Amino acid sequence: MVVDETDPWLLFLKALFLKRLSRKEEAVESVLLSIKGYPWNWSAWLLLASCLGDRDELAAILPLIELPKDHPCMCDRLLKPDFFPESTWIMGMRAALLYHLHDFRRAELQFDQLMKIDPMRIDDIDILSNILYVAENRVKLSKLAHFYLNVDKDRPEVCCMVGNHYSLRQDPERAIQYFRRATELDQSYLPAWTLMGHEYVEIKNSHAAIESYRRAIDVNRKDYRAWYGLGQAYELLNMHQYSLYYYQRATALRPYDVRIWQAQGMCYEEMGRFREAIECFKRALLSADMHDITICDRLARLYNEIDDQNSAAVYHQKIIDTSLAENKPTFQYAKSLVYVASYLESHNSDLTRALAYAEQVAKSNAEEANLASEMGKRIQRMVGALGLGAGAGAGVPGGEGDNVDGEGDGEAEVDENGDVDGEVEGEGGGRGGNALDSYLNEEGGEEGGEEEEGEEMEGQHFEAV
């Protein structure tokens, strides 16, 4: 029992004992009171962090922490001339913070300033090597690796930097050698275990990768990168049920990470569970740019798999709008142009726009040019037969659940708004055209899958570091 309940140091000691007794809630209460009394006790903040299990618990206690309004800028404030302008420790903390915020340019500049003050400082250089790896700055990473090897070759941070150097040179065997040496020097050095697991994934040694990731989890079960790596390793073994479990553990720790949601969606897709895959890619789209073409293309293909042509057309239209805004060449989004044109044709809706899309593809050097040319001729005949002007039809629906009237009695009528109801006899109905269906079956699966897998593997080392 603490005699003075207001003394921050006694409250900190009380929290330590409660943590040891596995009385976590009481420990959190005591350490919060300690921080309130003296917010400069770094050990108290570390103790609080160790008591929190996930983001939900963090979100719950943040309102209880009384912080000054300028707290987010505390590192900048402490580096001002009237405080500690040349404190290498604060500079290292600021660089690490910028790195975790994905502000790699400013983080690298902070490390450059730090090395000018103390070029022999080895702490945190593994974070600098991660930044240089992501930036693919091979020259600078190579120079620093050789320099710090001469300073102290028996520091795990130095071994990690050299491992990143060899990994960037596409030499996974040498990279694994240095990452393993880092773990031998310090078995609790988490980055080396995770990075070594990624290198084993690169050389398709899934069993060794799984062992590395499990060792990383033994060091820190809150590290999402190890859980994510386990999911990737089990995917190499085609054990998708296991992969799903580990991806779900990773998303619980990092719920806003686009790459993990995409990996989980791809896993569901491989298992043929398309509706679950759609939900995962939708969740990824919330965290990413809402007009991310790669995710929209995946969603459009999945909706096509479950015969929801209406929603598939919506995402193809998003791809078209984004591509036009970015002035991309036609061949890069020709598939979406053809799909939307076929959808509009089959539903007798906005034929003028369908014709414009078909002609755009037909005039390009895309593989779909011949298909678009034939479609354009059909649409021209329909427009001529119905005598439609520009802007006829309702167009592609604006979102999921919108219904387009594709049923009819074999006759076409133009209402007072210029919309066409019914179907033209002899043309395709509900699914948007047989020619497009066969095209998607031939081209959609192979091309999209390889592109997404390539993107994931390209970025996996970045997620690990």
UniProtKB/TrEMBL annotation:
Q: Does the keyword Cell cycle apply?
A: yes
- What are its GO cellular component terms? anaphase-promoting complex
Q: Where are the TPR repeats?
A: 156-189, 190-223, 224-257, 258-291
> Which processes are annotated in GO (biological process)?
anaphase-promoting complex-dependent catabolic process; cell division; positive regulation of mitotic metaphase/anaphase transition; protein ubiquitination
Q: Which stretches does the entry tag as region Disordered?
A: 394-465
Pfam families assigned: ANAPC8 (PF04049), TPR_16 (PF13432), TPR_2 (PF07719), TPR_8 (PF13181)
Q: Which InterPro entries match?
A: APC8, TPR-like_helical_dom_sf, TPR_2, TPR_rpt
**Chain ranges of the Cdc23 domain:** 5-63
**Segments of skewed composition (Acidic residues):** 402-426, 443-457
Keyword field contains Ribonucleoprotein: no
According to the UniProt entry, the coiled-coil residues are none
Q: Write out the entry's keywords from A to Z.
A: Cell cycle, Cell division, Mitosis, Repeat, TPR repeat, Ubl conjugation pathway
Q: What is the protein's name according to its record?
A: TPR
